[in-house]
Amino acid sequence: MILVTGCSSGIGEAIGDLLIKRKSYRVVLTAREQSLAKVKARFPESDRVRVMALDVAKSDSRKAVIDEIQKSWGGVDILVNNAGISYRSTLEEMSDEDEHLQMETNYHGPIDLIRLSLPGMRRKGRGKIINVSSVSGMLAMPTMASYSASKYALEGASEALWYEARPFGVNVSLIQPGFVKSHSFERVRFSTQSQKTHLGVGPYAGVYQTMEPFVANLMNHAWATPQSIARLVQDVIRTQNPPLWIPASFDAEFFYYLRRIFPRRLLQPFLYFCLPKTAAWGGKYSHRRAQMIWPFRVIRSWFQKRSDAIQDQCDEIENQQDKS
Ligand SMILES: NC(=O)c1ccc[n+]([C@@H]2O[C@H](COP(=O)([O-])OP(=O)(O)OC[C@H]3O[C@@H](n4cnc5c(N)ncnc54)[C@H](OP(=O)(O)O)[C@@H]3O)[C@@H](O)[C@H]2O)c1
Q: What is the tens place of the pLDDT at every residue in 275-302?
């Protein structure tokens, strides 16, 4: 029995499309109450397909779904934690409440569903947990601090769980999409403050106003689609021992190797250089002192060290001459 969260759009909907075609699968496709009618219209229920209401950010909703599956089908065999939200806000402009919802949806909810499903999987001696993560779980981008934090947390917990669940025959995988050609960036949320700033003025206005079209452009030109990510999820379901980390698009592979190969000292300055119009970020709100850009700083300090070394040698020669 396969449980998939967040099936009302994007990747979750594409996963549902693939899974209901396979006659040997029993599937529970879930959506929040407000999206349930749409999902029921798309996925007609049958003796092997059920559509249930699940808000992953609510503990009683999570428990009710797992209890119902336990009663009807004896528990979850494969859990696909796909539902997720993304805030567009700088760290400073996030509110506590928004931070909480971001973490509850992308981290606490999926982790609790794992906790509720795992005992049954252990008892059967088999099971799969597939967490849809993101490139943001390996590299963080400006205006996505909280989203990144939620995906980093999911990655960390999944990595630990991989070791813990392995002796019981339970497999854990992280699907890591990069930019996906979909409408999900239109569903991005704003904190109260970032909602104001991204349309108006303020210290971070330039960051939003350049990052928004930049991300939209990358998503519009991405090769990966919800359907290609869904096919990968299906492959993981059908593979006996899938790996833990599964980069799900070309850019995800690229960033994975970039992070591994590029010296850490150079990675952030390089990525900062690649971001749009950073020279204008902060604008008149920035009071930082003029700084020498880092390559010149490195060259200056190298010359400084050389001249100090030469000076030391001269002093030593002079000392020796004085003695003789
Ligand atoms: N698209 C990308 O570029 C991209 C890249 C990397 C990773 N991802 C990850 O892929 C996953 C799916 O994203 P997507 O692109 O398919 O986004 P999407 O089109 O916005 O779909 C997100 C789904 O999650 C559901 N959801 C949101 N909050 C929920 C909650 N509290 N309880 C239950 N369901 C909830 C939404 O349902 P409602 O209709 O009820 O809101 C929707 O079905 C997410 O985990 C996302 O972080 C996406």
A: 999 998 999 999 987 666 677 777 777 8
Euclidean distance between CA atoms 249 and 179, whole angstroms: 8
Q: Which of 85, 31, 86, 87 is nearest to 55 (CA)?
A: 31
CA–centroid distance, 85 to ligand 1, in Å, is: 5
In whole angstroms, how far apart are CA 309 and each of 303, 305, 314? Answer: 10, 6, 9
Choose one of 184, 221, 256 to mutate for the ligand 1 pocket test, by most ligand atoms within 8 angstroms of C-beta: 184
pTM of the shown model: 0.90
End-to-end C-alpha distance for the chain, whole angstroms: 91
Residues with CB under 6 A from ligand 1: 5-12, 31-32, 34-35, 54-57, 82-86, 105, 132, 134, 177, 179-180, 182, 184, 187, 219, 226
Rounded distance from Cα 13 to ligand 1 centre (Å): 10
Q: What's the chain's average pLDDT?
A: 94
pLDDT tens figures, 187-205: 999 999 999 999 989 999 9
C-alpha Rg value of the chain to the nearest Å:
25
CA dist 198 and 203 (Å) reads 10
Please report which confidence band the pLDDT of residue 75 belongs to, taking 50, 70 and 90 as the band edges. very high
Of 61, 86, 133, 146, which residue is the catalytic one? 133
* CB of 3 closer than 8 Å to CB of 28: yes
Q: How many CB atoms lie within 10 A of CB 40?
A: 14
Residues 18, 15: Cα–Cα separation, whole Å: 5
Among protein residues, the one whose CA lies closest to atom 7 of ligand 1:
134
User: Under a CB-based contact definition with an 8 Å cutoff, are residues 100 and 122 in contact?
Assistant: no
CA of 324 from ligand 1 middle (Å) equals: 81
